[in-house]
Structures are given as structure tokens and as C-alpha cells.
Amino acid sequence: MRVSSKQLQQAMAKFATGVAVISSLEANGDIHGMTANALVSISLKPPLILVSIGHQRDTYANVQKQGRFGVNVLSRKQRKLAEFFALENSAKRDNPDSSWQFEGKGSPRLEGALVFLECTVVATHTYGDHTIFIAEVENIISERGLPLLYFQSKFMDSGIPLGEQGGL
């Protein structure tokens, strides 16, 4: 039996994740952003992460071209931004709720993000309708707060500790 895309989507919806906006700056100054939850730390030495970006997204073409991007891990107060950046390219209009700052090498950082990672692409791998970008983290800005979560295809609030187990 072959697994359908719908079945896989429903199964993966049961895996709770954080929510991030992948941001990139075009040469003409336009900012591209997309909501993502496919974000993984793959190495501490060197500091490497991977993000998976669909080929239909404007952000994909720009990250591919520029070789740089920012990862903005959203706080629980930024649900509206997550919803906005999840829209299809053609549905996006100027978003009054986003305020950008430019860090180090010019990567766009969303004001109020819980964590910002400034990244340079070191490798790409294309599978199906997505490309995996492996990137070295060159700058980190971390703020206090609680994360926005995504579970069962819905944004969730967080912050209630389950106990003092410590670590994983």
C-alpha cells in the first residue's frame, strides 16, 4: 500500500513543532518570508541547520539565488504573523504587523521574534517538490518569551511546564 500525501500530512500534524518565518532579502530590497515548521539543528560544530522550502514559494527562489536567509522563531504573541507568512505568494500584501531589522550581513529579522538565526547556505538537496537547504548559523539573537507552537494543523500557545524532569 502506498501512503498518500493526505495520510502523511495528517500523521505529521500530530508532531508538535515550533513556528518560524524564513526570511530573505532580494537584491532590490524586497523582503520575502514564509512560515515554516520544517527546521532542524543538524550539527553543533560547525553550527548547521536545515530548512525545507517548497519550490512554489517566492522565498525558495530568493534563498536559492542569494544563498542567505534568516530564521525567525516566533513567540506566542506572533500568531498573526505566522498566519500572514503562511499565505500563498499571490495572497500576500503589505503586512502592517511586521517590523524588520537588518542584522550582520543584511538578513531580515522580525522584531519580537523569540530567536533569530542568520544563515549562509552551504549545501542543497532537492527531493520531490521541496529543496532542503543546509546552512551555517553565523549569528544568533535570542529574546525572552514563550514560543508559538503548531499541532494538529493549528497554532497553539505554550508555556505550561510538565514537571522538573530537566533535559530530554
Name some characteristics of this structure.
mainly beta, Pnp Oxidase, Chain A, globular, 14% helix
Describe it for me?
The protein is globular, with a radius of gyration of 16 Å. It has helices spanning 5-12, 58-66, 79-85, and strands spanning 17-18, 20-25, 31-36, 39-43, 48-54, 68-73, 100-103, 107-110, 115-127, 130-142, 149-151, 154-156. It has 168 residues and is mainly β. The chain has a 7-stranded antiparallel β-sheet with strand order 3-2-6-9-10-5-4, sandwiched between helices. A 3-stranded antiparallel β-sheet has the order 1-11-12, with no helix packed on it. The chain has a two-stranded antiparallel ribbon with strand order 7-8. It has a single domain (16-145), classed as Pnp Oxidase, Chain A (Roll), CATH 2.30.110.10. Strand 2 and strand 3 form a beta hairpin.
Query: Uncertain segments of ≥5 residues (pLDDT<50)?
Result: none
> What's the main sheet like?
7 strands, antiparallel
Kindly report the CATH topology.
Answer: Pnp Oxidase, Chain A
Number of domains: 1
CATH architecture: Roll
β-strand number: 12
In short:
The protein is mainly β and 168 residues long. Helix content is 14%, strand content 43%.
